[in-house]
Amino acid sequence: MDFRTTSVEELSRLVRARSISARELTQAALDNIEALNPTYNAFVAVDAERALSEAAALDETIAQGADPGPLAGIPLAVKDTHDALGYRTTNGSPMLADAPPAEHDSQFVARLRAAGCVVVGKTNTPEFAWSANTTNAVFGATANPFNPAHGAGGSSGGAAAALAAGMVPLATGSDGGGSIRIPSSVCGLSGMKPSLGRVPGGGIAPPGWLDLSTNGPMARRIHDVVTALNVAVGPDPTDLRALPRPEASWLDALNDPHVPVRIAWAPTLGYADVDAEVMALCERAVGTLESLGAEVTVIDTVFDEDPVGDFLTLMGVCQLRTMRPFMSHPRWEESDPILRAIIDAAEATSAEDLVRLFDRFHAMNLRLVELFHSARILVTPTCAGVAPLKGEGSGTINGTPNANWVQLTYPFNMTRSPAASVCVGLQSDGLPVGLQLVGPQHGDLVVLRTAAALEAALDLDDELLAGVTLPA
Q1: Which pTM does this prediction carry?
Q2: Distance separating alpha carbons of residues 97 and 30, to the nearest angstrom
Q3: For residue 451, what pLDDT is reported?
Q4: Which residue of 162, 169, 173, 362 shows the fewest CB atoms closer than 10 Å?
Q5: Which residues of the chain have pLDDT under 70?
Q6: How far is 76 from 216, CA to CA, in rounded Å?
Q7: Which pLDDT score is estimated for 205?
């Protein structure tokens, strides 16, 4: 079964109608993983016996006439930063490689499982999800299905590679600086970072990246993403940042996808260098938005300078807090050396430094408030450059290595904005390019509706299916 050509909604309908069993669907995913994962290294753990047992129980529920849930039988890949019952959560770190299996699901995974999903395994991530390309000392590097010489982006790179190759139809992701949008962009997916608090991030442990990171489902196309969001969003009493469930149905809104009347196109946000081929594909997509009826205004500057320093400061302090208990671990030196350097630098950050950092986040959001007075959506390239080679950290911009090839995503974690990435075409090297759509505070619906309209207008499915390099 090719999960790339049948929607999540349709797969679940077939299971509920007993046209195909959840067990058969799960077995298809396991067969795909067995055939494809040696090439791409997207999955780091699979438990076929557990998955098939869960699927059989779901089939029995259906046979008894009970409601199996709106995602009945959907094989689900879980990012190795999220707890899933019976699986280790290693975070891609040598210090957690032998962690005990989780005794319960995270809230996010629990909601998807309660809706009928069947967990088939865990997907690869850079150590503690810190990097924009997926590789670590425990499981190695994940390859990009469109060009296996390159990486799949990060930090949800294992999930993106699994989806692009057709191993599974749905996966969990998280986005603290672009970690859903970046791999979605370079793996040809439509990805969405919901507003902070939309998808539960609570639980026993406090949030790893404070107000930067949000959970979200990942899939090939925006309708599948929204189908999963429909069951994932909503408040959780253990999440201090949780938002109420939206009054309007996001899924129903996709029945009428359209672009807003006014769109702001900021090709560099005012500070970024952008690869020429990436820019050309994004400009063509902006032309498509105009053809759909949008009035596009070019914005030279959104932010006066690259806020990467503030982003790294907050991320570093969060990682310091998370990793300090492991500093005496016998495998500490196997940890990512760049991550350890960021942690070392974080030791010098004072409490006042952090408060002033959040003051600057506030100022960034005020810039967006002003912009959204005259436009409903802000559009930029998702990634400024080309994805790194497999296992490496630096991408390229116009052929020159650049460690910050993802200069355009993290500002919108700092402002907590909803943001999506839609594939707009393939570069000459075969790698996909994404266009980023950013909405106002809690404006998830306008982002999703615009993403759906653009995706439909571009109609790249055949090109993307042909672009994936499947093993013989």
Answers
A1: 0.98
A2: 23
A3: 98
A4: 362
A5: none
A6: 13
A7: 87
